[in-house]
Specification:
- The chain is α/β, with parallel strands linked by helices.
- The protein has two domains: 121 residues, Rossmann fold (3-Layer(aba) Sandwich); 94 residues, Winged helix-like DNA-binding domain superfamily/Winged helix DNA-binding domain (Arc Repressor Mutant, subunit A, Orthogonal Bundle), CATH 1.10.10.10.
- A hairpin with a 2-residue loop joins strand 6 and strand 7.
- The protein is elongated, with a radius of gyration of 18 Å.
């Protein structure tokens, strides 16, 4: 079955261009012109991926992204007309999987869509729970527990924790974490790793498992005795 892509943009020429190009590549494409419509269609259609403009006439793209992430892990690519790093960093920290700056080549959008879908598919492959100390990471269900208490994580927080857990005790540098969690085509600031590590540390407080900083090298996940 063809993957369903929801394209959200208030510029009809953009939505029609992407709908035409993605449809010709075998995707089912739905469109929305504002944030409210995007949220409604996301809940109704459960698309496989959302292409979301940052600047919308009612609810901006960052808020739409935040609300989508509060309910699901649907892959999301943000479109932005601004070439400012802060917009890209904030979007990624809110849970976006990638971003594209306008004006863009439709072929680039297609390539990014395929890459993000491949990464999402890889996350869904069968993988047993990871148990470290009092921490349990259920990869298939995308759930985390400290003892019997659930830990609520954003999509990228979960992916980052899973990457560290799969390499427990091994130091992973920022570039490797960016590649594993955000993808090889990510070209944003490595500071986004540090921000997500800080969030994870807060949420793992009280666990025997901790994320250690190895100065000049990166991060590793360890279990305190």
């Amino acid at each position: 079955m063809a993957a369903t892509i929801l394209v959200v943009d208030d510029e009809p020429n953009i939505t029609q261009l992407l709908k035409l190009y993605l449809s010709r590549s075998g995707f089912q494409v739905e469109t929305a012109a504002n944030g409210e419509d995007a949220l409604r269609k996301t809940r109704a259609l459960r698309p496989d991926l959302i292409v979301l403009d940052l600047k919308l006439p009612d609810i901006d793209g960052l808020e739409v992204c935040r609300r989508v992430r509060a309910e699901s892990d649907i892959p999301l690519i943000m479109l932005t007309a601004r070439d400012e790093d802060i917009d890209k960093i904030v979007g990624l920290e809110m849970g976006a999987d990638d971003y594209i700056t306008k004006p863009f080549n439709p072929r680039e959008v297609l390539a990014r869509v395929r890459a993000v879908l491949r990464r999402a598919e890889g996350r869904l492959r069968a993988d047993g729970p990871i148990r470290l100390g009092d921490l349990v990471i259920d990869i298939n269900r995308r759930e985390v527990f400290i003892g019997d208490q659930p830990v609520q994580l954003r999509a990228k927080e979960f992916d980052l924790l899973a990457a560290l857990a799969r390499n427990a005790g091994i130091v992973l540098d920022r570039d490797r974490l960016l590649n594993q969690v955000w993808g090889y085509d990510f070209s944003g600031d490595t500071r986004t790793v540090d921000v997500h590590i800080a969030w994870l540390r807060q949420k793992l407080a009280g666990s025997r498992v901790e994320i250690q900083t190895v100065r000049g090298a990166g991060y590793k996940l360890v279990v305190r005795e």
